Amino acid sequence: MRKARFGNNGSLMDECKMLRLKNGGELAYAEYGYATGAPVLFFHGWPSSRTMAQLTDTAARELGVKIISADRPGIRDSSFQPNRKLIDWPEIVEQLADHLRIQQFRILAISGGAPYAYVAAWKIPERVLAVAIASGAPPIIDLGDHSGLLSLYRRLLWLYRRSPRALRGLFYLAGAVARIRPPVRFRPLMLKLLQLQPCDAASLEDSVAFEACFESQRSAWRASVKGLTVDAEIFVAPWGFRLEDVDVPVRLWHGTKDRAFSTRVAEYVAARLPNCEARYVQGEGHYSLPIRHMREILADLIAV
What we know:
Layout: E1 17-20, E2 26-33, E3 38-43, H1 57-63, E4 65-70, H2 89-99, E5 105-110, H3 114-123, E6 128-134, H4 151-162, H5 164-178, H6 187-193, H7 198-203, H8 207-223, H9 225-236, E7 250-255, H10 263-272, E8 276-281, H11 288-302
Parallel strand pairs: 3-4, 3-5, 5-6, 6-7, 7-8
Antiparallel strand pairs: 1-2, 2-4
Helix pairs in contact: 1-11, 4-5
């Protein structure tokens, strides 16, 4: 394993490290924030990878928090795990925490990282002190109404139900485009083509935020479309537990302008969690919420 590099004031620089898992696979992870700070495990979104946690670095250094962010199995530099299920994740989390000699920790999850945060809190509550969710994905299979989901997600769900094979083929085609790094001068055009909420597009004009969100995506697509496809299929499959059984404190943050998952969807999730405090932030979207409010989210989490 390579040693961490330290920046000014004890901050951790981005560097990939590898952990050999009990099943023989390897888990890639990186550390951000303050080297000796309170540990927070960061669960990246979809499609994304460990370097999405760059969004936390400045706030984590200011607050004295150490961020540990791992690629999920099959994502970027982590080994592919056949027949992976959501409920397999807590065992991996425990191995990472044991390796780092961390007994208890908090979890911060963004978007598609939410299911992984909930399952860890459910299965190993004795180790999870609290969870913060930003722009989190819901248990899609439990939704009776999909109108609160992004229209693209609704179309992908329609295709997946009719032909999973066709959807996998579509992902491979999308991956061929998504792995291309556009020149910096084309970023405004790219943001316009994505038809983002104005608040999201404005927040992504920041180069650090843009790189954290989109370079982490490109790296994931470049490494393994198969891994990203499995990750997507896990979201729409039964999770294997009920949100009502997650007793760990949850702080659920959601922007009122979130197009990926509407406020109504977030309210549905919050109502099912027995120990949840929801923070609905006016005028913020799926991207702008974690980009603009990361310090507030982290400070709230470590106060629990």
